[in-house]
């Protein structure tokens, strides 16, 4: 599976109010919104549901959540509750996608839910958890902190 990271603002789907000021995370947030929009368009233009693209969306969610967890671990954030939200969400989305595949239920409802959940998650959970950091705190290559300095603990 090919997982690519786009640039923030390439399609303008990530509102400024949802930026967490960590370029890697913001780019991944943008990419998820782009993928959801692309799937919406594909579903409106055809009666066939592109299951492989839905699977790719879930894989990208998992990739993104792993990135957040890696960065949180690198700076010592208490991320246990946030990581639990990620795991529960992936399980819920997997169950909903399996139901969509089995029953042919409305793909648009699934995508609307993904979009709503993700926007809320960024605004309420990610901004709280990553609000103690700034892009200056992390080395863009390693993802590790760039200097001494205590970091607050944040929970989802």
Describe the structure.
Helix content is 62%, strand content 0%. With 156 residues, the chain is an all-alpha fold. It has a single domain (22-137), classed as Four Helix Bundle (Hemerythrin (Met), subunit A) (Up-down Bundle), CATH 1.20.120. Helix 1 (23-45) runs antiparallel to helix 2 (51-75), helix 1 (23-45) runs antiparallel to helix 4 (107-130) and helix 3 packs antiparallel against helix 4. The protein is globular and about 45 Å long. It starts with 22 loop residues before the first helix and ends in a 26-residue tail after the last helix.
Write down the CATH topology. Four Helix Bundle (Hemerythrin (Met), subunit A)
Number of domains: 1
The main pleated sheet reads as: none
What class do helices, strands and sheet pairing give?
mainly alpha
As a whole number of angstroms, the C-alpha radius of gyration is 16 Å
CATH-defined architecture:
Up-down Bundle
- Kindly report the average pLDDT value: 81
Broad shape: globular
How many H/I helices? 4
Work out the helicity level: 55-70%
Spans with pLDDT under 50 lasting ≥5 residues?
Answer: 1-11, 147-156
Sheet-strand content, in percent, reads under 5%
End-to-end C-alpha gap: 29 Å
CATH superfamily: Hemerythrin-like
Give the helices and strands, then pairings.
Layout: H1 23-45, H2 51-75, H3 80-103, H4 107-130
Helix pairs in contact: 1-2, 1-4, 2-3, 3-4
In short:
With 156 residues, the protein is an all-alpha fold. It has four helices and no strands. The relative contact order is 0.16.
